[in-house]
């Protein structure tokens, strides 16, 4: 037995459904979105697409004028590309850098900008292995 769709006769499409839809149906979908205030769930979108619209920025401290200016510039530059900044402040603690790096990598951020506390030869060479910080 099929149940009637709850919103304007519009049913969610399965992943296998990739057909184009008519302009009439497109208009009905827009109306339902507007009426219900629907907003896509970013976590669900990330799971579906494997893409995240967040860039991680890890800084040694946030109460520095220069760091604040850099983060503001990063945020401003990414805004035009529809990316959000996820900020991690390590208080200059190396283990916190590793923790933030690991967490951001696990959450599939689109990229990570690291302002490290100490510039090691490994970092100068462009390395980013969690165990060799």
Number of β-strand runs:
3
Content-based structural category: alpha/beta
> Which geometry do the CA atoms define?
elongated
Main-sheet strand order equals 2-1-3
Binned strand content = 5-15%
Distance separating the two termini: 59 Å
| Total number of helices | 5
The gyration radius over C-alpha positions equals 21 Å
Mean pLDDT: 79
Major beta sheet, specifics?
3 strands, parallel
Order of helices and strands: HHEHEHEH
Query: What's the multimeric state?
Result: single chain
Uncertain ranges? none
The residue fraction in helices comes out at 40-55%
Please explain how this structure is put together.
By secondary structure, this protein is an alpha/beta fold. 41% of the residues lie in helices and 12% in strands. It has a three-stranded parallel beta sheet, with helices on both faces. The termini are far apart.
